[in-house]
Amino acid sequence: MVLDPPAAPNPLSAAASSADAVAPSKVRIRFQKSNDLRFLSHHDLMRTFERMLRRAKLPFKSTQGFHPKPRLVFALSLPLGVIGVEEVVELELSQPISPETILAGLVRQAPPGLVILSIRPIEFRAGAQVRRLCYRVMVPVEAVADVRRRAAEMLAATECRVERTRPPVRTIDLRPSLRDLRIVEVNDGAALEMDLCPTPAGTARPEEVLRLLGLQSLVDSGAVLERNRLELTDETQPPPPSLDVIATGSSGTVAEAPPVAEGIA
């Protein structure tokens, strides 16, 4: 009996296996979403980033299946209509590439209202776990005293229950997710800042906090909310400046960090 000779190794398969064995790079992108783009849904925002990556011809890693997509992970989806001041998305790359190259490509392709703030290389095993988030909304000057009083009562309470009407309808306690409520000075008046943190039971929604504070009229009148802080568990300490590549907007101006508000005594 004559045995068949061993099959010659397929060079394409060998190259693919070798490529799969190399861990891809990973970067964390901070960006702003504002102006009319705040009405873009989370799903459409993902598609926008996909278009930006493809048009910039960046070497991103894709998901498996019939409809491969870039391996993008957003730290936390942004509610529709809310301005995102420092949002986070993480991108896996199929080959190492400098943050400067990624930055230049994304800035050129970003639509109006989407500003790339910074790009930072991270460990491949790292993940964007949200530790704290903050929402801000302008408050009429005549309502400041009442809001301050109600905020103090909420922070002193052991529970703050609201009925969540989205299916399934249920009553939830916002207090475990509520870290702080404060009135801050801004350039053109006063604003309420709501410091929240994720819990195993979920995260308080800003409109629910406003309802408990007697500010439902702000929501009904279409007040613009902004999420001005998204703090991650691995970013409790400021990273070394050398790790961040700070972006310049499409207009060529450096994107300024949001001003630090001062509390009203």
List the helices and strands and how they pair.
Elements: H1 11-21, E1 25-33, H2 42-55, E2 72-74, E3 83-93, H3 99-109, E4 114-121, E5 130-139, H4 144-156, E6 161-164, E7 170-173, E8 178-186, E9 189-196, H5 206-212, H6 216-220, E10 226-232, E11 245-246, E12 262-263
Parallel strand pairs: 3-10
Antiparallel strand pairs: 1-3, 1-4, 2-3, 4-11, 5-9, 5-10, 6-7, 8-9, 8-12
Which structural class fits the helix and strand makeup?
A: alpha+beta
CATH topology of the largest domain: Alpha-Beta Plaits
| DSSP E strands, number | 12
Give the number of domains: 2
Distinct helical segment count: 6
Shape-level CATH architecture of the largest domain: 2-Layer Sandwich
Given the C-alpha coordinates, what overall shape results? elongated
End-to-end distance: 95 Å
Rg computed from alpha carbons, rounded to a whole number of angstroms: 23 Å
Helical proportion, percent range: 10-25%
Provide the CATH superfamily of the largest domain: Pseudouridine synthase I, catalytic domain, N-terminal subdomain
Instruction: Characterize the biggest β-sheet.
Output: 10 strands, mixed
Uncertain residue segments: 6-23, 248-265
Mean pLDDT: 83
